[in-house]
Amino acid sequence: MEASKVSSGGDTTLCNASTRGWLSVAAVSFGTFALVTSELMPIGLLPKIAAGVRAVEGNVGLTITIPGLVAAFAAPALIVASRRLDRRGLLWLTTTMLIFSNLIVASAARLSTLLAGRVLLGIAIGGFWAIGAAVARRLVPPESAGRATALVFSGISAGTVIGLPAGTLLGELCGWRIAFSGAATLGGIALAAQLCLLPRLAATDAVGLRQLPAVARIPRARVALVAVALVIGGHFMAYTYLASFLEQRAAVSPGVVSAVFLAYGLAGLAGNTIAGELVQRDVRRVLTGAGLLVAATILLLSLVGSRPLIAIALVIIWGFGFGAVPVSLQTLMFMAAPALQEGGSALFVSTFQLALASGAFLGGLAVSSGGITVATLLGGAAVLTMPATIWIFGKSVSPR
């Protein structure tokens, strides 16, 4: 009788711990959603922001570029600076930065103030992403690590599907300053959840300046970082100008383009969820398959995308394939350097953000010199080199 009571009590304790762990992962994921929403918010509001701070749209476009570039350098810097700090404290700090960055942007009267707020956001993005996925994996049992990583990365798709359209609509109805105030509110909710739910999380490995190049010296880690650069750079070379492609090449109306982006994001959520279940079995196959699917759809879009229905279908398939990419890349990095997960995450974030900014920049050059179709074709070709790299050089990259 007594044994049964003890067993029952132990099961209850384990159940409560498991529930709290998943709630903590959800709090981190909501922080991801708030970050992505804040980072993408200017895309739909550039004309209004430009008018509000009396600047040309081309200069206001720096609000998109700057956070990515700052995040690329902030990720390793913050990891090294906070090498022995409680990881939940770093999450609290970066989420607080997110809140203040949006409040600065919402109150900005000049472009310089606006960009200062976006610099602060870049620091928040770098620090949060460098430890977010690694922390999530520690909050659940090892066999659920893939699902936890997928849940954190689902904030990317949710920010695209829900955050960006909602922020654009709020900005249209109430003004762009209210939209950024709303993003600050999202950050406040995320911070409150993290304060209530996150347990103490000691640094697993004291990341010093010597450990970052140590990660890069691991052959599997180098393969993972090259894969990140190729697929993310190629993706954003084409994706940055997708709306223009749909309107100009496929003759899709602006109203329908918004619906297409919504469908893209929903498909991305599905791809993210499925990949989260599969990456623990064989991340190499999942990443290779996702890369081939993304490359094929982008290349087909550049070749036969003049037909609206075909273009829309290809974009939705593209979203499904790319939804599996971030969680697969991050898992690949974890497996490549299991003893240096935070250092690996810092280099992952830096490479990701630099590839994003470089891809968008090179895509712009391609559009200026050869047109949108050229940018799409080059982006698809760049993505195609990723699965080839993984398959040729990454045969030992996915221990099961």
UniProtKB/TrEMBL annotation:
Residues 24-397 form the Major facilitator superfamily (MFS) profile domain. It is a multi-pass membrane protein. InterPro entries: MFS (IPR011701), MFS_dom (IPR020846), MFS_Efflux_Transporters (IPR050189), MFS_trans_sf (IPR036259). Its main location: membrane. It comes from the Bacteria. The keyword Phosphoprotein does not apply. Pfam families: MFS_1. The keyword Cell membrane applies. This is Purine ribonucleoside efflux pump NepI.
